[in-house]
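User: Hi! I'm working on a homework problem where we have to compare a predicted structure to a textbook description. Could you give me the structure for the chain below?
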Amino acid sequence: MKITGTIAAALLASTFMLGLTACEDDGPLEEAGENIDESVEDSGYAIEDATDGN
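Assistant: Happy to help. Predicted structure tokens:
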């Protein structure tokens, strides 16, 4: 029973390690999404700045 738990823990840990290494590089869609997020955030700041004076 204890061996089964150890094997399960090792498999779970290796799955997490593989998942982290797979997400290391940004693809073109990831970069496009980040650019969109940044543009929306900048627009929000511009709107906030424009309405603060009123």
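For your comparison, note the following. The longest helix spans residues 28-52. Helices lie at 2-22, 28-52. Good luck with the assignment!
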